[in-house]
UniProtKB/TrEMBL annotation:
Residues 6-170 form the Bacterial bifunctional deaminase-reductase C-terminal domain. InterPro entries: DHFR-like_dom_sf, RibDG_C, Riboflavin_Biosynth_HTPR. It comes from the Bacteria. This is Bacterial bifunctional deaminase-reductase C-terminal domain-containing protein.
Amino acid sequence: MRLIESTYISLDGMVTGDAFWGAQQGFQGDAHNEHAAGLLQAADALLLGRQTYDVFATSWPERSGELADLINPLPKYVASRTLTKATWNTEVLPGDGVEAVSELKKSREGTLLKYGTGSFSRALVEAGLLDELRLWVHPLVAGSGERLLPGLSPTRLALAEVTDVGNGVVILTYTPNN
């Protein structure tokens, strides 16, 4: 199973923060939405960390439209040491998330799409489990928030593709530099 992480990021490397999340929606257009829909159509399941799951599971089931119609029925996996029960068509991967994802990748075919970033993403990169990292770079300096993959050990990636989705947003697709 291939693992793709897709994450929004500001020019100054922020992936969280009110300034970023409040402004990034203004950059979305038709090409942006088409690319997002294409990623979901190609995915066989979603992988989420606990915090992303908590946000998504409370907001996406109530939404409608093309993206909601694609994301809501997909099988989902959430890595969590504390969550015991999940909703929204989700299976909890208990224990060590990296080990669980490694086993999942070995036991299934297809594409696993991961949203969200943080310590779980960092651990997946360090373990060599990420097959693609897609950074949706927004032309915005957020100024504050959490940076992408803080504390990551030096890791080389190869630029595989650049996609312009309009409004100044480009998607930089990186793969492991083996």
